[in-house]
Amino acid sequence: MKKLCPLFxxxxxxxxxxxxxxxxxPKTITASKxxxxxxxxxxxxxxxxxxxxxxxxxxxxxxxxxxxxxxxxSGDDIKLWLxxxxxxxxxxxxxxxxxxxxxxAMFTACDNCDPYGDAWQITxxxxxxxxxxxxxxxxxxxxxxxxxxxxxxPYYAMPDPGVKHKxxxxxxxxxxxxxxxxxxxxxxxxxxxxxxxxxxxLSYLTQENPLFKLEHRLNMAHSQYRTRGSFTHNRxxxxxxxxxxxxxxxxxxxxxxxxxxxxxxxxxxxxxxGFYGDQPYLDSGAKIELFGQSSYAVADAHIFxxxxxxxxxxxVPSGNILPNIRAAHQTAPLFHxxxxxxxxxxxxxxxxxxxxxxxxxxxxxxxxxxxxxxNRLTASVAARYDIYNxxxxxxxxxxxxxxxxxxxxxxxxxEWGLPLMRAATEWTQIIEPRARLTVMRHIRDExxxxxxxxxxxxxxxxxLFSDNRFAGLDLWENGTFADYGVRMAAFNSDGRTFExxxxxSYDFTDRAATDPNSGFHNGASDYxxxxxxNNTRWLDISSRFRLAExxxxxxxxxxxANIGTSRNYMTLGHIWSQRFIDLQTQGDNINExxxxxxxxxxxxxxxxxxxxxxMTYGEFQRHTGGFFYNHPCYYFxxxxxxxxxxxxxxxxxxxxxxxxxxxxxxxxx
Length: 669
Hints:
The protein is an all-beta fold. The chain is 1% helix and 61% strand. It is built from 2 helices and 44 strands. The strands form 3 sheets. The chain has a 26-stranded antiparallel beta barrel. Strands 1, 2, 3, 4, 5, 6, 7, 8, 9, 10, 11, 12 and 13 form a 13-stranded mixed sheet that branches. Strands 41-42 form a two-stranded antiparallel ribbon.
């Protein structure tokens, strides 16, 4: 028979022979049968017994005896429960102040997790549970898995399962790379409050100096702050580091501020130490947003750090942006469904030896109508006025210019569409022809336009029927052009959908300096389209394409597919684009494939692999994969990643990573 003394409850007179006995303080004894001896003032219970004290600790045992003062207790199968599946079992459990002491004890969080035994348990000569600090202290602990001893430590401490946040060491993980050797990551967690914490990680590398990482998190009533960073002094004597910060501050119901910081010591640090996420550049700045029922305004600033080795003015921010202010307002319907929109844009760009500022104001009136037979007609007229101030800035014609330039830009369009629906028992079909005629003021780009925020025009199905076919505002679509196309769609009662779109654009005015890869030409453009199918269960596929206007040869195609379920799936992606250096000279085509696979081998075992393959040069850009085991009581994974990038002093590496941890009541340790 196992014994417990003294008990951590004090008893007083109470009703007897009841299934549940409540005491003056919130302490409870629950049993199939309770007997009270008036002479000795002791209690005996029969069958399964549960005792809960005022601190919330729960004790279960069978056929117990409790003395008058609670300093003696005996029973069978004594377990001190710390959670739904977590308990301490011992031959002798005592209490001294806030500490409950179990000797020759066993601790586990895997109660009935497997039919053939506990996944893990810890035995110790003594386990102390401190209710004040909410900590469990183990003396001479041995970690067992399925009754096999694995590890021994002289001492180990951990928070009890009821603690959400507790300062202490986290489970380390291991990595190995072919450039920096073995890396051991030792994280330390600091709980500053329920909404404020940070994690400091020391990474020891066998072939490089240590790396220090810090992650800080703070949540407040109307704001949140996130900061991540790292630092190392490498063996070449260089200080290398990075810092990422993202703060969101709610300024009331109609305003919000954001502060963001992304900086690194150099272009290759993020890749070498595993912080790189394919970002082409780092963006730092701040933003303030104002919201209204039908209005929106934002003011932001950006300071860029370039990460690419080679780039052109078509893809790189041409300077730091300060300020960037945009505002928009839409009126209530003036009549019928006609409404007006007003916009304003202020932008300042400063580079190393040049700068420019612009002020843009625009107004538009839009009037949509539904006519007989389901015909839909939309008419719109807009006016825009630009003021630019250039300082030592290169213009489109190659000259360097300083001074003011202004332009008045009126435009308008008329758009027609006719959705035709044919309902059927199995599939409902829709055919919708659509056309838009746009008239814009014709200006000479080479005399004015500066490509500050416009990355040029690229024809796709998403740019048809758009007010602005360029990426930004500096470049202006000239003259008159028409967009036209037809959309065919079908759907059934099971949720399966199919859609096909094909369209084209026609420029009535000669275009200046047309990019041979854009898909636009003087006159008719290339054909663009998309195909989509989704059966809502295991297949979702879509493809965008562009066909040459002259012979319908394929010029560009982007395809993505998701096959399978959330447990077993395959993702496929492919991009192919024919590239021209000029109108007569063809360069290397873009031909890249992306693939991913996930297989649930069992309820707990899974594997995942992903790869990016450059088909033009016949080599992998990157591939990753791993095996994962998720048990209710523990988890581990073995992963690898191979990066074949070559940039300045960085040459691609292979990294292996091993992680292991225990789970207690859904929390990972």
